[in-house]
Structures are given as structure tokens and as C-alpha cells.
Amino acid sequence: MLSRRDQPFPLEAVRDLIGLVRALYAATPRAEVTKRRKLVTTGRRLTTAIELSASTEHGSVGHRAAWLHAEEATRELGGLVEITTMARPVIAAAQGAVMRGLRRSG
């Protein structure tokens, strides 16, 4: 049974987490196949949470399921980020994506 969720779904925070997952994926070497697969799974779970929150009524089973997906994905992401994970490659990967987007739109 899903626990009751009366709070609004944290859409902006989940979107931020998707951005973080994308940056971590881009910063993870291709040789780390298992970690990259887990990041893909986590990103999909966060996307599912957003889709559920948008397509269901506040307080419904779907709304509670959106929260559950977001919470579990957040725990999964916490397990993938290690204390030794340096911020520089993650930030560089995110900057690269932004700069590519700017070049396309300019």
C-alpha cells in the first residue's frame, strides 16, 4: 500500500535531479557501463514520477506513486554518487550541454 501524500509534488526539485543525472551520466566514463545503466534507470524513474504527477490528481494513487518513484530514484542516485565523485567533471559536462544548446539556438 502506498503511503498518503498530501504535499504537492516537488516538480522543480525532480527536474533538477534529472539534470544532475544527465550531467553525471555525461561525466561517467563509457567503460563504467554498470554505473551508466543505473543512471539511465534512475533518470527514467524520475521522468516517470514527473509524468505521473502531471497526469494524476493531487492525493490520488497516481500522485502517491509519483512520490514513491521520486523518493526511490533519489535513494538510487544517492547510492551512485560517492564521496570521491568530484564536482568538476559533472559541472563541465553540464556546461558542455548548455554551450552546445546555445550554439544551436544562436
Write structural notes for this entry.
- The protein is mainly alpha-helical and 106 residues long.
- 75% of the residues lie in helices and 0% in strands.
- It has four helices and no strands.
- Helix 1 runs antiparallel to helix 2, helix 1 crosses helix 4 and helix 2 runs antiparallel to helix 3.
- The longest helix is centred in the middle third of the chain and has 23 residues.
Features:
0% strand; elongated
Write the layout of secondary structure elements.
Elements: H1 11-27, H2 33-55, H3 61-80, H4 87-105
**What are the low-pLDDT stretches, counting only 5+ consecutive residues below 50?**
none
Global geometry: elongated
Q: What portion of residues belong to β-strands?
A: under 5%
Order of helices and strands: HHHH
Please bin the fraction of helical residues: over 70%
Number of strands: 0
Mean of the pLDDT scores?
A: 83
Which structural category do the helix and sheet elements fall into? mainly alpha
Short description:
75% of the residues lie in helices and 0% in strands.
